[in-house]
Amino acid sequence: LITSAMKIEGELERIGDQAVNISERTLELLKIPPLKPLIDIPRMAELAQGMVKDALDAFVHQDAGLAREVCLRDDEVDALNNQIFRELLTYMMEDPKTIRAAVGLMLVGRHLERIADHATNIGEDVIYYVKGKTIKHHCEQRNQKRKIPGISIS
After folding, report:
1. Which of 34, 40, 52, 97 lies 20 to 30 Å from 68 when distance is taken between CA atoms?
2. Which residues have C-beta within 8 Å of that of residue 69, sequence separation ≥ 6?
3. Do residues 35 and 98 lie in contact, with contact meaning Cβ atoms separated by under 8 Å?
4. How far apart are CA 105 and CA 111, in angstroms?
5. Are residues 55 and 123 in contact, defined by beta-carbon separation less than 8 angstroms?
6. What is the DSSP letter of 31?
7. Are 66 and 137 in contact (CB under 8 A)?
8. Per-residue pLDDT tens for 106-123?
9. Interatomic CA distance for residues 121 and 135, integer angstroms
10. What pTM, to 2 d.p., does this model score?
11. Rounded Cα distance, 44 and 78, in Å
């Protein structure tokens, strides 16, 4: 229990770091003309927030089923991030004046995606704590299949 709690504490600290990054990026974005409203970024934020809440609930209640659901939701966040990336890349190619705003929004999407990844890590730790099963390697293999060919945004 103590080891799991310490690992989860580290994930929560990283989530906090990502939240700071989002706040800083948002302040920068407020200074420039906005792009077309993107509904996917608020959706990503809702999903990531829900994943963090459910991952922590799974830990508190030792609920491996809920923890697994958190891990499965990561795919939706990753898909939204890829969709946002492609849409913003198109904006930048069509109008170079949008580059600053588009890059800022890409980074916000990336930070939200990382928050979801940290929630997934918490879910994986809960499953290990409750069931004694490691699913981390399975999730990493699944993530490798989702990468955008020829594009690295790490």
Report:
1. 40
2. 54, 123
3. yes
4. 10
5. yes
6. T
7. no
8. 999 999 999 999 999 999
9. 10
10. 0.84
11. 9
The answer to whether residues 1 and 129 touch, using CB atoms and an 8 Å cutoff, is yes
pLDDT grade for 137, boundaries at 50, 70 and 90:
very low
Q: Which residues 6+ apart lie within 8 Å of 89 measured at CB?
A: 102
Amino acid at 49: Q
Instruction: State how far the Cα of 91 lies from the Cα of 132, in Å rounded to an integer.
Output: 47
Alpha-carbon gap, residue 24 to 34, rounded angstroms: 16
* CA atoms of 31 and 13, how far apart (whole Å): 28
Give the C-alpha separation, 79 to 63, whole Å: 26
Separation of alpha carbons 25 and 93, rounded Å: 22
Fold of 2-31+41-139: Methane Monooxygenase Hydroxylase; Chain G, domain 1 (1.20.58)
Q: Locate the domains of the chain by residue range.
A: 2-31+41-139
The secondary structure of residue 89, as a DSSP letter, is H
Whole-number Å distance between alpha carbons of 92 and 101: 9
